[in-house]
Design a protein that fits this description.
This protein has three helices and three strands. It has 77 residues and is an alpha+beta fold. It has a three-stranded mixed sheet. The radius of gyration is 12 Å and the shape is globular.
């Protein structure tokens, strides 16, 4: 559910939505999501001073906490 949320949210703001890849590394109480996108979309995904990716991380954190989990979102080059 959280992986789909990340994919759908990020795809809406990129020029190359077909190149969005999200890998999930799930643990017992923690999930790490690695986001890969086209190199020209990285700036748009991160946003000015990291504001865009920070907002996505906050929403992801809320979703995870409702499930009693933690979630980390990393943007990978």
């Amino acid at each position: 559910m959280m992986k789909k949320f990340i994919e759908n949210t990020i795809k809406q703001m990129t020029d190359y939505p077909d190149e969005i890849r999200v890998a999930e590394i799930a643990g017992e109480h923690l999930s790490i999501y690695e986001l890969r996108c086209h190199e020209q979309d990285i700036g748009r995904v991160i946003g000015k001073n990291g504001s865009t990716i920070a907002a996505v991380r906050v929403l992801l954190g809320v979703m995870a906490s409702k499930q009693g989990r933690r979630a980390i979102l990393e943007v990978v080059d």
